[in-house]
Amino acid sequence: MSDIIDLATRVGRTLQQKGLLLATAESCTGGGVGQAITEIAGSSEWFDCGFIAYSNASKTEMLDVPAALIAQFGTVSEEVAGAMAEGALSNSNAHLSLATTGIAGPGGAVPGKPVGTVCFAWSMGNRARPNTFTERLVFSGDRQTVREQTVAYALQGLLRLLERN
């Protein structure tokens, strides 16, 4: 967990230096990214809000993810992760966002999406036309390990995005 807190600290420092606010949209991590971020004293200066959208209905209602997108690609897809990140931007005061959706296990696997499959998205820029980047990975380990790896990777991806912009 200390590695995750170190990553969250680096994210916070970078966001604060750039004068940016972050929002999160989490499914499989259940708020783990937000928890790591809010462990950092002063995070209210760079963290706007977090959405825990675990059900498909909450993804649609809170983050404006089209139900047709979920039906077409499945909840665990780069397309849905991207829509979640963009929904977090449009429903917050944030300048950038990240999203996680996946199968932490032990059940839930479907053909082509084994346990440990996680889709990520990072979005920033104009709310009407954000730049959104997605990625799909498969982690190994038990539920807790998959979730911890997901939180760490989401924060690492955010740092990469911030370094490019």
Summarize this, please?
By secondary structure, the protein is an alpha/beta fold. 45% of the residues lie in helices and 21% in strands.
Within CATH, the superfamily carries the name CinA-like
Task: List low-confidence stretches.
Answer: none
CATH topology: Maf protein
Strand content: 15-25%
Q: For the record, what CATH class applies?
A: Alpha Beta
Total domains:
1
How many beta strands in the DSSP annotation? 5
Shape: globular
From the N-terminal CA to the C-terminal CA, the straight-line distance is: 28 Å
Mean pLDDT: 96
Helix-strand topology string:
HEHEHHHEEEH
The largest sheet has its strands arranged as 2-1-3-4-5
**CATH A-level architecture:** Alpha-Beta Complex
- Give the structural class: alpha/beta
Number of helices: 6
Query: What characterizes the major β-sheet?
Result: 5 strands, mixed
Radius of gyration: 15 Å
Q: Which bin fits the share of residues in helices?
A: 40-55%
Would you mind describing this structure in some detail?
The chain has 6 helices and 5 strands; from the N terminus they run H-E-H-E-H-H-H-E-E-E-H. The mean pLDDT is 96. The chain has 165 residues and is of the alpha/beta class. The radius of gyration is 15 Å and the shape is globular. Helix 1 packs parallel to helix 6. It starts with a helix and ends with a helix. It has a 5-stranded mixed β-sheet with strand order 2-1-3-4-5, sandwiched between helices. It has a single domain, classed as Alpha-Beta Complex (Maf protein). It has helices spanning 2-18, 32-38, 56-63, 67-73, 78-90, 143-164; strands at residues 22-26, 47-52, 96-102, 117-124, 131-138. Strand 1, helix 2 (32-38) and strand 2 (47-52) form a beta-alpha-beta unit.
